[in-house]
Amino acid sequence: MGEIKSIQSSWAAVQDHTRHFSDFTFVYPVISRRSKGLSIGVNLNPDKACNFDCIYCEVDRRIPGAVAEVDLRQMKDELTAMVRFAKDGGLAKEPKFDEVPWLTREVKDIAFSGDGEPTMIHNFAECVETVVEVQQSEGLDETKIVLITDAAGLDKVDVKRGLKLMDTHHGEIWGKLDAGTEDYYREVNRSNVKFDRILSNLLETARARPIIIQSLFLKVHRQAMPAAELEAYCGRLNDLTESGGQISEVHLYTVARPTPEAFAMKLELAELENMAAAVREQTGLTVAVFP
Ligand code: SF4
Fold it and tell me: Which tens digit of pLDDT belongs to each residue from 196-219?
């Protein structure tokens, strides 16, 4: 009885129109160029936990996260409410989207991303199951389920289970690779996880299904990535494909907003385009640029 009451009150809370979606804890809407439209983000790290400490990260970890754990029922209710709000045209009327209202009715993807690394959660597969339930109950037959990841946890048993479920429900994995050498990786991503482990996780994952590699290139202390590092980066991509990894596309992007670390700065579009051309030439892969 208590459980039913709590289901009802959780649903009532997200249905309450006085409660704006910006108050949601786990779910948020964004118009994403990389998603080509509306992406509904699912934040699996409300505690802001991450095993990277990227110099360009925008998450302010000096302020603690709102809650420590993902409440699956609340996440499901928020996601369902957000999908319906988008489909009914409610999002289109929001000031935040008034320049692109036509993009807000179709949910292009539901993306695990947010304030940390999604694969750090202990029940990733259960989170995928919950999103799949909403995808099915709301008739989102064309909507992708995207995992945006730093790749450090792709070798966990529970995560692999979640990835398999994603594979049969329009799943797509966007794995981060910002460097070609351990040194540059340590400088930019500042992680204790070994670079080799990131590479082997990407390889194992890309052997099982095609993945997208997403790479943020930037200026560090006014220096763009050195040519030798870019060459090494292309070498790592070639290692992946030559070992049986499938890379459907490479997404290159740069810093979008000022970062807490002032020495991490955006690249100009021309610089990013030049790097993309070099990656295309050295790897033969499809490279898309998102300035
Ligand atoms: S992996 Fe993402 S969340 Fe983690 S530090 Fe880097 S940018 Fe921030």
Answer: 999 999 999 999 999 999 999 999
Q: What is the pLDDT of residues 6-39, one digit of tens each?
A: 555 566 666 555 457 778 999 999 999 999 999 9
pLDDT in tens, 276-286: 999 999 999 99
Nearest CA to ligand 1 atom 2: 116
Do the beta carbons of residue 44 and residue 25 sit within 8 Å?
no
Q: How far, in Å, are 116, 149, 152, 193 from residue 51 at the CA level?
A: 8, 11, 7, 7
What is the pTM assigned to this prediction?
0.93
Under 8 Å between Cβ of 225 and 275: yes
Ligand 1 contacts CB of residue 216 (under 6 A): no
- Tens-place pLDDT, residues 40-62: 999 999 999 999 999 999 998 88
| CA angle at 280 for the pair 278 and 286, rounded to the nearest 5° | 150
- Going by the DSSP 8-state scheme, the letter that residue 17 receives in this structure is T
Mutate to test the pocket of ligand 1, among 59, 174, 202 (most ligand atoms within 8 A of CB): 59
Using CA atoms, how far residue 48 sits from 51, 59, 68, 116, 267, in Å, is 10, 8, 9, 5, 27
What's the CA-to-centroid distance between 3 and ligand 1, angstroms? 36
Please name the residues in contact with 284: beta carbons below 8 A apart, sequence gap of 6 or more: none
54 lines ligand 1 (CB under 6 A): yes
Check the CA dihedral 18-92-173-130 and report its sign: positive
At residue 11, the pLDDT reads: 60
> How confident is the model over 110-118, as a mean pLDDT?
94
Domains (ranges, CATH) in the chain?
1-174 (no CATH), 177-291 (3.20.20.70)
